[in-house]
Amino acid sequence: MPSSLLWAVDVYGRVYSLSTAGQQWEHCRDAHLEFKRVTAVQQCCWSIACDHNIYLYVHASEVPIRYQEETYENQRWNPVDGFSDRLLPSDRWQWSDITGLKHQPLGDFQLPSENWEWEADWYIDENFGGEPTEKGGWTYAIDFPATYTKDKKWNSCVRRRRWIRYRRYKAQDTWVKIPSEQTESLPDPFNDITCGGWEITEEPRGCLALWAVSLQGKVWFRCDINHHNPEGSVWEEVPVPGEVVQISCGPGDLVWAVLWEGHLLVREGVGRDCLKGSSWVTVESPSPGVGVVHVAVGVNVVWAVTKDHKVWFRRGVNSHNPCGSGWIGMVGEMVMINVGLSDQVWAIGFEDRAVYFRQGVTASELSGKAWKVVSVPRDSERSHSSASASSLQSAGCFFGGEVRLQSQASMLSDADAETERAGGEVVPTPEIGDAPKPRIPKVTSDSFISELVSDREGQISRCDVPPAGPSIPEEDHPEKELEDRASPAQVLSPSQSGGVDPQWSNVDLEEAQTHLTSGPGGDAAETSSLSSVATYNLALEEPYGLDEPPKWAWVSGGGCLVECHTQLNWFNSSTSTALNSSMQAMSLSITPAQTAAWRKQIFEQLSERSKREMENFMHYEQAIEQSVWVKKGTMQWWRDWKPHKWVDVQFALEQFSGVEGNKDGILFIYYTFNDEKKYLHMFINEVTILVPVLNDSKHTFAIYTAERTKQRWPMRLAAATELEMHDWLALLSVSCCDSRGIQGPPSKQAIWSVTCKGDIFVSEPTKELEASPYPTPCAQISLGVVWGIGYDHTAWVHTGGYGGGFFQGLASSTDNIYTQTDVKSVYIYENQRWNPVTGYTNRGLPTDRYMWSNASGLKECTKNNTKPPSPNWTWVSDWTIDYAVPGGTDREGWQYAADFPASYHGNKTLKDFVRRRRWARKCKLTTTGPWQEVPPIPLSDITILPCGPKSTVEQVSLWAISNKGDILCRLGVTSLTPGSSSNYGSSWLHVGTDQPFKSISIGAVHQVWAIAKDGSAFYRGSVSAQNPAGDCWYHIPSPTGQKLKQVSVGRTSVYTVDENGNLWYRHGVTPSYPQGSSWEHISNNVRKVSVGPLDQVWVIADKVQGSHSLSCGTVCRRLGVLPMEPKGHSWDYGIGGGWDHITVRGNAMEAPRIVMPSLTDNQTATRPLQTSNQPEMNGNPVGC
């Protein structure tokens, strides 16, 4: 899991960040001002500084923030001038947008702020619909507006071309001020700010909701914040039924605010079409008479802090009920609280001003279990505070040892300051009375809403503050619940203790003089002052002592990702940390290389000793020639003959070892037929593949041999439980590997393939095979460097280990096994038909599909009966409408068509009688395996330079495409040690493009080909080991009338697959002309293609003839591929059904000539990572 940051502000207004992988607070030295508030998300952090301006900190990324500006140049033909800019009065502008309604000359485009810069000048786009245009980029039509074509015709009277210019956001990893011209219309400064809403909609990309509160209690919303406009555009006021003092926005549609009176407001109507919402609903304070001073919301949680610093949890909160149902009192006293990612909770303690983390927060227990203090040191910088008295007051920060009137504080003379410094301590006021403590805590009073709104009666309380411990334990008695309509409960006030100097005091400035004269026992009148703050004079001293922990004023965990299994190093005490460091300094420095050398030396010495001792006994006859052991169990077997049905059988594995230690085994299935006991047997060394299959009722797996692969009829067995199935799979996998003498991880020559359920299978180019249960849906390999991509677009690198998951003990390596997580979405469709009486309803025709179904409509899938892909996956979200559907949707997510099934579109027409919309729900997998995550950029495709078996390269060329279509080149990847850190590389290099891409491949001599999202092909010129990113892109015309979707490049061959499943071969590719000359059609019904370093061609094909019907997702190998015949002549078929991806990029060894293709020489056992809940199809155990 990549590291993320927790942000905090101390009482001096200095900003710090703490990494989940770090052990100390890092001071943000770029912040030259003091800050009052920060609100963070993963990609950026917003803040309010002491000058009342809004500042933004955007994290630097290897993929720059670029925005494409475009405008169209329009011309009309006339008999005199030909095509010219002389248009008719009714025509569109000469320079306009794509609709022609907006005037957009080149000179009118300005940068949004000084934080942007132009990448280059305007240029003409010569790509039209995936095909290159004639020089000049013109497209022609009969009239405006009409359908444009790239070819000029005799009736083409108008033409246009697109001009493009990119601007780049340059202000990254630095605090930048939001342009003042965009905020000068605001009546007063901001007092609070919160950021969230990134889960509301995915369009536009990176959309955020930023809310702010002004000093006058007004609420403002920042419009148009997204990835291409990180600063947003303008502020819009949101009407509120009162004066708001604090506001909180969660990742979804939850927005809560605190009123001055202590009540709460909940925003309703927040959605993808209205990020600001529509109305407010009032929620009462959890404790009558004690108002709320702070609120924090997450996805499904709301936390609050009242004036007496009690912490409350709101239960029953979700998107359908944003107000929740009741309050639960929690243990602990806090001054502020914040909810981060995964609903994790952070807070600042009332007594010690330390940052606390709520432990035990999970999806099933959102309230957590206990508070634990974050005890990590700050970095080495301990500078003096540079804030002047005026800047501190402007920021709302007042420090010192006595309570003063604001006017008195402002009239302090230099002599007074010198007197205070000379005395070494601050003289207390008559109200305080007692001797001051050696060090008085410094408090950023304006940083706490509790100081702004508490003590409206003005009573100064004295409290005896006990020493703060490392954590706040839970109480033994059950937590108290308060319903909204419950009777008022008694609230305990803080304990009073006279004669003790209070740490914190609240003083109404308007009544301050009254307090000074009346003494501690005087009653204070009510006041409505906006400046109810406690002021402390700032002595000129070190901000913190050498051993004094920092005092925190604000914390924000909106960008901090902490999972339940995450191991943090934040909770070690300073004593133990110092002890550990001293012990490490005293210990010997032993490198891993030395440890490996010692282990090898010891093993060799033991082997020599064993051989020497056994030499004298070699002539004795073996007492036992072989050892045999048997494992038996009860299973069900899918009978081979008709009528096919599940039969109860006895299943046994008999494994024996020979004299020389070689192992083999036999599988037996004992069944009864016509009251006669019979059995089937299968030799372990004949097993080619083990495939797990899960359906709604049984835990099944299939066993293939070469002969059964020909017949397309595996041996199918069903275990009683999932655990029993996993045990058998692991045992059979180890037995098969033992029979072939295979140990350790896959070799560099291995062929990797992925099923449509996410299971990875590995095949060696010989008749030996390696088991590999690795959860990555895509893999690329070269010289032992293996990368994969998960469903959530996370990149993973193979560590060189093996096993993990349900492979334990000897079947798994002891090191290089890491925790893995993946998230995928499960989709179901809601279908409706129109009728003249009721309109669109869920009552269809008898011949219609199910009203709740899968994409095909053949299987009923409702919200209640749809389960995760396998028991290993767990739901992590509720069902939501998915708007990111191909073809577009309307505002409610519906797609329309004339009938089922048909081509769907997002706008309703008169001929549309049916409609559907897609619902999505996310599920998550947590497991272990020999893969390590490569943060932070999510990827959609990856390719590695294929090399021969004897090739040696210093740098392995690796290219990738981000999930947003950006092309990246990985630097620093080497193959010196497979699975080492050198396989990860050092950084990404962004390669500029004019449009998003979806597929990329690099050949054996650095030929880089890529497919854009519009289906056009490109070749990257001048790529070499010395110039890994190349120079420019060359547009390659696609096959006529086809849009390409995937490309694979070998040594001299280039193959592509189009969206219609056609496989194309590029003719004329030579070193002098690497772009080639023309396309030749090779085959149809192809899903994926992979070309190896020796120009081997492997594909995933559909509609391949099986034993009973056509199978979907069959691995096929091209036969007859020779240097003089690179296209080959025919196909050879492997195990059919359910394969989704294959890569032979690392296979630089010719496979032996056998009857079946290489996948029939496989034996793998995989964990059912992403198997579907459906019966087997066409005899294929991994049916799509």
Automatic annotation (TrEMBL):
This is Tectonin beta-propeller repeat-containing protein 1. One of its GO terms (cellular component) is cytoplasmic vesicle. The keyword Repeat applies. Residues 410-442, 455-504, 1158-1184 are annotated as: Disordered. It is found in: Cytoplasmic vesicle, Autophagosome membrane; Lysosome membrane. Residues 629-739 form the PH domain. It comes from Cyprinus carpio. Residues 490-504, 1159-1177 have a biased composition (Polar residues). Residues 474-486 have a biased composition (Basic and acidic residues). GO terms for molecular function: lipid binding. Coiled coil: none annotated. InterPro entries: Beta-propeller_rpt_TECPR (IPR006624), Peroxin/Ferlin (IPR006614), PH_domain (IPR001849), TECPR1-like_DysF (IPR010482), Tectonin_beta-prop (IPR051513). Keywords: Autophagy, Cytoplasmic vesicle, Lipid-binding, Lysosome, Membrane, Repeat. The lineage of its organism: Eukaryota, Metazoa, Chordata, Craniata, Vertebrata. The keyword NADP does not apply. Belongs to the TECPR1 family. It comes from the Eukaryota. Residues 64-125, 137-170, 821-882, 893-926 form the Peroxin/Ferlin domain. GO terms for biological process: autophagy. It holds the Pfam family Hyd_WA.
